[in-house]
Amino acid sequence: MDFEIENPDQMDVEELVPKPIHREPPRIHRLDEAVVNRIAAGEVIQRPVSAVKELLENSIDADSSSISVLVKDGGLKLIQVSDDGHGIRYEDLPILCERHTTSKLSKFEDLLSIKSMGFRGEALASMTYVGHVTVTTITKGQLHGYRATYKDGVMEHEPKACAAVKGTQIMIENLFYNMSARRKTLQNSADDYPKIVDLICRFAIHHITVNFSCRKHGAARADVHSVATSSRLDAIRSVYGVSVAQNLMEVEVSEDDPSSSIFEMDGFISNSNYIAKKITMVLFINDRLVECGALKRAIEIVYAATLPKASKPFIYMSIKLPPEHIDVNVHPTKREVSLLNQEVIVEKIQSAIESKLRNSNESRTFQEQRVDPSPSVSISMSKESSSHPSSSGSKSQKVPVQKMVRTDSQDPAGRLHAYLQVTPSSQLQGSSRLASIRSAIRQRRNPRETADLTSIQELIREIDSSCHSELLDIVRNCSYIGMADDVFALLQHNTHLYLANVVNLSKELMYQQVLRRFAHFSAIQLSDPAPLPELIMLALKEEELNTEGNENDDLKEKIAEMNTEMIKQKAEMLEEYFGIHIDPNGNLSRLPIVLDQYTPDMDRVPEFVLCLGNDVNWDDEKICFQTIAAAIGNFYAFHPPLLPNPSGDGMQFYQSAPSRSPEGGDASKSADDVNKDEVEHELLLEAESAWAQRDWSIQHVLFPSMRLFLKPPTSMATNGTFVKV
Asked: pTM for this structure?
């Protein structure tokens, strides 16, 4: 079949030209207020870290001295920020989360002299449009706090009275629950938690008078924990580590010429020894965390031109300008600001950094370390020198084939020491250089291992002078095998086995750590403050077996009252030096962290408080510090849990009721014969968990810490702490 194709040139041209469609211009209409607010909220709260930044700034504006952040699922499920600031008035709660409600300014001209972090009154309102917000707050003088929930800028119910600690807690749940596209994007992208941690680290090194902490929901240990300090460098060391702090140089620039610029800048910049893959720049302008692309590029140019391999620097800067020379209202999230004479300021800072780097680049520091030969190497060397008196001649000896390859990990000839030129041990012992290196290593392990008071220095010198050298060698080089019973652990040192009393060892370790960390403790916050009189009464009742009549109870109450008053009088000293916080009402609310990754047995708090009241000599400074450190050491020691060990004979303690023999007598059963139905399962699980946690802590916390920090006293060689098997 033939098909006839029409020539396109012959087609009607009019058919190819589309006919215009007449359309009316779209009408402009006013958006619903809820739509407007949700769009605005998406600009202000771009991701979870944006919400955390706004809440941190609010807490700082509230004159907080402690801020803690709790995050779940990168902030999408939960963001909780708690502070101890001045709180929110009850009458302000209904309008708290409405847009453009703020206590920071009242007219536009106030922006010219604004000093607070927030000023628009948009942050909390925006959070209510993209999440569920709950606010709990209490102000000074109130007997209780109030809790209110908010949605779409409106308080859902009347504030409810509730128990609360000083300050404000704001909780955001299900962030972006009504913005499915953004929520999916954030869920599919990298977790926002590292960004939140980085943000808090930046705030912590600038606001050094505020305690910051941040942890994931369900985690026992905080990922960021900074304490208030008077030194910026100490804050950087605490947050970013010793490796960063030891390679920083202080830089200062100022200008007071009204015709060009007026500003002051102080900060820290990394030197030529600092090595990093990417730049870290922390910039605060008038105490506001911001970014400045022009300044960052200028600094990168200086480092690329001055240092080898285009080193990526660490930069911390705080720039102060007159408030009228800065415009803070140029970015939805206040991430950027506009500066008057910005080019001049950037140029002067760039010149100062370049000058500082060039002066520091004339010399570079390299860490050196001499190698102390092991005894086995020294012995082998002496044997060789005696058997080959001519070995010092010019003729080199042939190395045996078996010595050229490491075939035995225990053979000293296969270690690196055997191939290095070594210095005799007698010379090393008199070398001040080696002592300084060891001191530097100790400082890196515990950078706060210093104390200013003479009494503390004397106590630490006593620890050093009474250290038993052989026991120190055992502690430093032993291998942990396991627990032989509830108190003794089995250790191996060289070819010998030892039984070591973990209670005595941990008590001495904690005592020494308290003295070394004197006045530089992190804190354990108790969920509920514990009244001192009740704690002391508990301890007295545990000690007193005979509880006859009211006279004995009255005596106990009198003792508790006297000890409480004594401890309250010393509360300021206990908090400043030992991190033990007692509020004016006599409630214990904070305890010190003596050993990282370890929390003491809270069942022993009553005994500890009683020791503070009864056993401490408050009259002599040195004895006072010594007895307090001993009380803390005893409290933090690895005592056996109060519940009997469920393994072995201790299992009989968890029987619900004793069984009877057919004759009516008691049938004594072993642990294996106990009927499962007769066991108190909840108590048993609690005991098993406590004992398992103790065993784990002894292996993974106590012994690694002993190897680093413990200096066993001479008394441990004779008091049964170490028993050679």
From this structure: 0.50
